[in-house]
C-alpha cells in the first residue's frame, strides 16, 4: 500500500463530537459546516459499543432510541456520505469497556470482577475485561459490521484498558474474572494478585500482563483492519497506526500543574516510533464531572500549539454537538487548526532536530513502586522544565529504545543524553551508554542512575563505567533525612565548581551565599581518582532558634562529579536536583542542571537566545525541503491554575548554530525576517510573539 492510501501519514486536523445517545438525530450538514469552518478535515464520531449510532443487527449492541428522529434511521450512514462529499474523513469511535445489563446477564464472563467478587456498575452499565471474549472476539464482529456497511476512514477505541477505576475515579481493584485468572497463571505460573502491593512480585507482573494483553489485542485489531481495508487507520495508545493522546484537565489535579504534558508525550512518541504519527485530542471542557463548562482558552491554546510544534496532529473535542458551546468558545481551537491547515506543507515530514535527549524509564518508576512517580517522573519533569526555560531543544527517549537507536546510528546524532534517576539498566543498555560516551557523547545522570540491575537488586558498583563515581557508600533518604543540608558551590578548601559558563558556580555565588539547598536524598559516593568534584556537602544543620543557626561541619562529599571517558565526558549529580526544581523552582537548581549540560556538550549549544524563560523553542527539520523550522510557544499567560491570553513579547533574537540559512520568514506574522549569517550559524530577530509562531529558515 502506498503512502497516498495511508492518509494518516500526512498532516491532518480532527474535531470530535463525543455524542450522547440523545444526539443521534443531529444535523449532519450543520456539524460539517462547523468542522470545516474551524479548520478541521476529519470528524471523530461515536459509532458502536456502549451505544450504536446505526441500526446494528448484532444482539449485543444497543442502537440509540433517538435514531428514530432520522429519516434514514442511520446517523453513521448519513454522516459518512455527507462528509466524504465534502472531502472530510470520518473516524469511528468505539467503546467496548462497558455493556448493558441484558448483555452482562447473558455473558457474565465478559465482565470485570473485583477482588470482592463484585461487578463494576456505573450508571447502569457493566464494565468489561479486555481478557474476556467481548474484547477478544465480539469486538471483531462489531468492527466487521461497521466495515461491511460504511467506508469509514479509521477506528478510535475509547477506554482501551483494564477498568481498575471508574469515571468517578473510584478504585475497584485488580480484575479477578476467570479469563484474567487463567491467562495470568498460564503466563507467570503464579496466582493473580488481589491487592496493589508493590512488594509483591506478582503485582509488578500484573502491570506487564495488562500491557501484553492490550498490545496483543491491538496488534490483532490492526491486522484485522489491514486485511479488510488497508486504507483504514487504527488510533490507539497501544501498537496503533496512529498514536493517540488526550490532553485534559481535572479539578482535583495537584499543583504545580504540569503544563508541558502534551509536548512531553509527543516528544517521546516521535522519538520512540518516528514512523507513527501522533494525534493529540484536546478536551474543550473542564473535567469529566463538568463536561459542559468550557476550559480556559489559554490552556487549550497551549495544548494545541505544543502538539503542532513537536510534530503531532492537533485536534479538539467536546461532548454533544457544537451548538452546546458559544461561537467564541472555539476561537483558540480555530486559530491553531486553521494555521496548521494553511501551513500544512511545513508539517509534512517534520522531524525534531534536537541534539539533546532526555531518557525516560518506566521500568525505573515501577522499581520504586508507589514512590516511583515522585522519584522518577518528577526528576525527569524538573529537568524537562529547566531545559525548556533555558532554551535547550531536546527529545525524550524511552530507555527501552536505547539499543535500537544505537544500532541504527540515531543515538550518535545526539550531543548529550540526560538520565534523570534512570535507576534500572540492563547489561545491553549499560554497554550502549558507555559506548556512546566513549565515542564522544556527553552524559548527565542524577540520583540512583545505574544503581540497580533489572531484577531490582542494588549493584555493588554503579552500572556505568563512564560516570565519575565508582559506587554508593551510603544512601540517606526520607522526608527529613537531609533537611537543612546544603551543597556548597565552593568547598572548604577554597576551589570552586569546575569550569563552564552560564552555570551554577560563579552565578550562584554572585547572587547569594553559594549554598544550594538540599532535601529528600543524597548519595554518598566514592569518587574515581580521575574525577573532578564540586558542590560539596554541608550536612544537615540547625535551623532554630536563630541564635543557633550555623553549621559546624563541611565535608568533601561531592554533589557533582565530572569525568572524561574515552572521547566524551559525563556529569553525575547524586541527588534529586530535578525533583527539587520541579517542586520548588529555585534558580540555583536550574543552574546546576544547565551547567552540567554545558560541561559535557562536545560543541556549543544548538541555540542561543534572549527570549525569556516563558518562551519554549523547538527546532525541527524537513529532510526533503532542507528547511529548518523553529516553533516558539508563549507561556506568559500561565499563572498557577490561570491561563490568560499571553503577553506580547517583542524583538526576540535567536541564533542557530550548525544551521546556515539565507531566508527566514515568520509564518504567523506572514513577513520575511532579516537574516544574519556567520560561519555555520544563522541569527534572526522576531519582532513580535503572540500565542505562538513558526519561523521557516531556508
Which architecture of the largest domain does the CATH hierarchy give at level 2? 3-Layer(aba) Sandwich
* Approximate strand percentage: 25-35%
Sum up the overall morphology in one term. globular
Helix content: 25-40%
- Quantity of strands, as a count: 36
What's the number of helices? 17
Tally of discrete structural domains: 3
Low-confidence stretches: 491-511
What are the defining features of this structure?
698 residues, alpha/beta, TIM Barrel, Rossmann fold, Immunoglobulin-like, 3 domains, nine-stranded mixed β-sheet, eight-stranded parallel barrel, 17 helices, globular
Set down the secondary structure blueprint.
Blueprint: E1 14-18, H1 28-37, E2 42-49, H2 75-86, E3 89-95, E4 98-99, H3 101-106, E5 121-122, E6 125-127, H4 133-149, E7 154-157, H5 178-188, H6 201-228, E8 233-236, E9 242-247, H7 261-272, E10 278-283, E11 285-287, E12 290-294, H8 297-309, E13 313-319, H9 331-342, H10 344-347, E14 350-352, E15 356-360, H11 362-367, H12 372-389, E16 395-398, H13 402-408, E17 416-420, H14 427-438, E18 442-446, E19 469-477, E20 485-488, H15 505-511, E21 515-518, E22 521-527, E23 532-538, E24 558-565, E25 568-573, H16 577-584, H17 587-600, E26 607-609, E27 615-622, E28 628-634, E29 638-639, E30 642-643, E31 649-657, E32 664-666, E33 671-673, E34 675-678, E35 681-689, E36 692-697
Amino acid at each position: 500500500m502506498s503512502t497516498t492510501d495511508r492518509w494518516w501519514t500526512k498532516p491532518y486536523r480532527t474535531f470530535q463530537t463525543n455524542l450522547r445517545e440523545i444526539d443521534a438525530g443531529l444535523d449532519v450538514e450543520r456539524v460539517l459546516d462547523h468542522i470545516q469552518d474551524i479548520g478541521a478535515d476529519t470528524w471523530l464520531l461515536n459509532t458502536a459499543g456502549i451505544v450504536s449510532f446505526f441500526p446494528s443487527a448484532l444482539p449485543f449492541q444497543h442502537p440509540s432510541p433517538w435514531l428514530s428522529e432520522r429519516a434514514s434511521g442511520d446517523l453513521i450512514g448519513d454522516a459518512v456520505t455527507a462528509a466524504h462529499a465534502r472531502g472530510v474523513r470520518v473516524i469511528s469511535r468505539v467503546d467496548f469497556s462497558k455493556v448493558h445489563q441484558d448483555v452482562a446477564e447473558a455473558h457474565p464472563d465478559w465482565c470485570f470482577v473485583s477482588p470482592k467478587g463484585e461487578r463494576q456498575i456505573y450508571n447502569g452499565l457493566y464494565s468489561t475485561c479486555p481478557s474476556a471474549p467481548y474484547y477478544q472476539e465480539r469486538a471483531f464482529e462489531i468492527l466487521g459490521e461497521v466495515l461491511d456497511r460504511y467506508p469509514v476512514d479509521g477506528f478510535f477505541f475509547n477506554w482501551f484498558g483494564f477498568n481498575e477505576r471508574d469515571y468517578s475515579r473510584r478504585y475497584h481493584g485488580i480484575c479477578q474474572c476467570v479469563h484474567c485468572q487463567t491467562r495470568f497463571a498460564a503466563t507467570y505460573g503464579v496466582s493473580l494478585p488481589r491487592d496493589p502491593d508493590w512488594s509483591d512480585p506478582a503485582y509488578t507482573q500484573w502491570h506487564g500482563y495488562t500491557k501484553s494483553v492490550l498490545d496483543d489485542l491491538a496488534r490483532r485489531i490492526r491486522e484485522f483492519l489491514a486485511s479488510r481495508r488497508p486504507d483504514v487507520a487504527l488510533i490507539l495508545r497501544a501498537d496503533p497506526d496512529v498514536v493517540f493522546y488526550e490532553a485534559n484537565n481535572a479539578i482535583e489535579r495537584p499543583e504545580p500543574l504540569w503544563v508541558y504534558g502534551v509536548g512531553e508525550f509527543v516528544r517521546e512518541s516521535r522519538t520512540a516510533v518516528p514512523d507513527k504519527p501522533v494525534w493529540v485530542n484536546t478536551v474543550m471542557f473542564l473535567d469529566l464531572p463538568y463536561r459542559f463548562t468550557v476550559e480556559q482558552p489559554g490552556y487549550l491554546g497551549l495544548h494545541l500549539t505544543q502538539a503542532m510544534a513537536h510534530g503531532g496532529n492537533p485536534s479538539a473535542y467536546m461532548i454533544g454537538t457544537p451548538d452546546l458551546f458559544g461561537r467564541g468558545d472555539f476561537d483558540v481551537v480555530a486559530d491553531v487548526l486553521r494555521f496548521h491547515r494553511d501551513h500544512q506543507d511545513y508539517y509534512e515530514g517534520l522531524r525534531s532536530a534536537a541534539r539533546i535527549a532526555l531518557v525516560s524509564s518506566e521500568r525505573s518508576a515501577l522499581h520504586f513502586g508507589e514512590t516511583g512517580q515522585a522519584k522518577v517522573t518528577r526528576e525527569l519533569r524538573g529537568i524537562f522544565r529547566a531545559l525548556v526555560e533555558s532554551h535547550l531543544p531536546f527529545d525524550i527517549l524511552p530507555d527501552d529504545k536505547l539499543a535500537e537507536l544505537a544500532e541504527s546510528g540515531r543515538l550518535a546524532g545526539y550531543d548529550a543524553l540526560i538520565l534523570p534517576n534512570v535507576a534500572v539498566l540492563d547489561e545491553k543498555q549499560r554497554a550502549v551508554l558507555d559506548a556512546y560516551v566513549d565515542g564522544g557523547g556527553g552524559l548527565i545522570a542524577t540520583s540512583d542512575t545505574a544503581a540497580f540491575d533489572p531484577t531490582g537488586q542494588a549493584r555493588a558498583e554503579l552500572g556505568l563505567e563512564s560516570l565519575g563515581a565508582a559506587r554508593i557508600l551510603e544512601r540517606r533518604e526520607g522526608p527529613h533525612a537531609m533537611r537543612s543540608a546544603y551543597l556548597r558551590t565552593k568547598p572548604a578548601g577554597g576551589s570552586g565548581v569546575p569550569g563552564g559558563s552560564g552555570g551554577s558556580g560563579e552565578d550562584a555565588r554572585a547572587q547569594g551565599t553559594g549554598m544550594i539547598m538540599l532535601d529528600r536524598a543524597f548519595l554518598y559516593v566514592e569518587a574515581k581518582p580521575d574525577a573532578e568534584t564540586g558542590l560539596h556537602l554541608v550536612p544537615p544543620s540547625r535551623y532554630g532558634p536563630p541564635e543557633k543557626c550555623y553549621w559546624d561541619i563541611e565535608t568533601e562529599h561531592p554533589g557533582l562529579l565530572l569525568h572524561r571517558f574515552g572521547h566524551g565526558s559525563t556529569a553525575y549529580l547524586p541527588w534529586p536536583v530535578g525533583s527539587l526544581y520541579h517542586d520548588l523552582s529555585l534558580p540555583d537548581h536550574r543552574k546546576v542542571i544547565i551547567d552540567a549540560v554545558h560541561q559535557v556538550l562536545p560543541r556549543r549549544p544548538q541555540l542561543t537566545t534572549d527570549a525569556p524563560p516563558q518562551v519554549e523553542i523547538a527546532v525541527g527539520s524537513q529532510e526533503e525541503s532542507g528547511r529548518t523550522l523553529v516553533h516558539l510557544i508563549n507561556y506568559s499567560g500561565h499563572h498557577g491554575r490561570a491561563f490568560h491570553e499571553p503577553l506580547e513579547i517583542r524583538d526576540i533574537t535567536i541564533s542557530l548554530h550548525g544551521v546556515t540559512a539565507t531566508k527566514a520568514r515568520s509564518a504567523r506574522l506572514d513577513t520575511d525576517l532579516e537574516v544574519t549569517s556567520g560561519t555555520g550559524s544563522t541569527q534572526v530577530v522576531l519582532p513580535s510573539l503572540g500565542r505562538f509562531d513558526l519561523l521557516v529558515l531556508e
